[in-house]
Amino acid sequence: xxxxxxxxxxxxxxxxxxxxxxxxxxxxxxxKYRIRVEHLIEIxxxxxxxxxxxxxxxxxxxxxxxxxxxxxxxxxxxQYAASNENYTAVxxxxxxxxxxxxxxxxxxxELSHPxxxxxxxxxxxxxxxxxxxxxxxxxxxxxxxxxDFLMAKRDFDSLSRFNPNDEAFYKQRANIRNxxxxxxxxxxxxxxxxxxxxxxxxxxQKRAFLYARIYEWxxxxxxxxxxxxxxxPAVQVxxxxxxxxxxxxxxxxxxxxxxxxxxMKLESNDLFKYRGTANFFLANDAKAIHDLTKVWERDxxxxxxxxxxxxxxxxxxxxxGCPDLKKAMTLGSADAKRIIHEFCPP
Length: 346
Fold this sequence. Notes:
By secondary structure, the chain is mostly helical. It has helices spanning 9-26, 29-42, 46-59, 64-76, 80-93, 98-110, 114-122, 129-146, 149-159, 167-179, 183-195, 202-213, 217-231, 235-247, 251-263, 269-281, 285-298, 303-316, 322-330, 334-343. Among the domains are: 29-95, Serine Threonine Protein Phosphatase 5, Tetratricopeptide repeat (Alpha Horseshoe); 267-346, Alpha Horseshoe (Serine Threonine Protein Phosphatase 5, Tetratricopeptide repeat).
């Protein structure tokens, strides 16, 4: 059996240090440059890192990693055209690089070329399981940007098996379902988010608006109340709650919400129309006439507005609203036709 001399530990340490130094000194300039680049990227000194990468490319134009790192840096700097160019350079050197193809797809999306993104992602999905989840998400966004909501939804449904607790997944699928007029499906996704106890009050706002689209007025009001209790007054939510109150004939509450919207400087035909309608049913004739006249002057498509103006004027002074009621009847208002002979005799 071979025996070794008893070398003191201090001597061993010195020898190790000398060995490390010798290895470091023996490294080629390329290895040193690569180490420096990685450090510069880590500390986000991107412009300097790009200069060193250009040096590495001059030394070895066939090394794909240098182009890949340039693509990554340019993406970080939001210079997506330059990023795309470098990922394309990688693919010229290695057409099978899934990393470069996936990364280039991201830049295609940023450059508003969803079709090109889809082509790249088609080449990735199913080829590398580590990319599938992210690729399905990215491809669904590409389909979404292209306006192909059915295909976007298909990819999002595929995503659910990868991470069923992914907040972003449910948010994005809710948007897609909404665009497909699958309102109940969108509500289901937002409800899942709320069930996750994610502290985002805007989930209640989104669901309130969705409930309004399917005429679930009480549920809409409940979600508006929750949102407003968490955030304070918000004009859009107050307006939609006012509309919901109007639909369930809570005219005083509707009027209060619409008045608050007006104080918050909301100026729109819809506000004037619905506030005027609430005041019509509350027999606040002067307020109703004020708002509804503004609506009629701007848009004469809803003859019911002219009918309400006529009724309110007649309430103020008998017969004064008859010209409006007669015109409304002529334009097709069934309500005006029903009451015209009672309030406006020939």
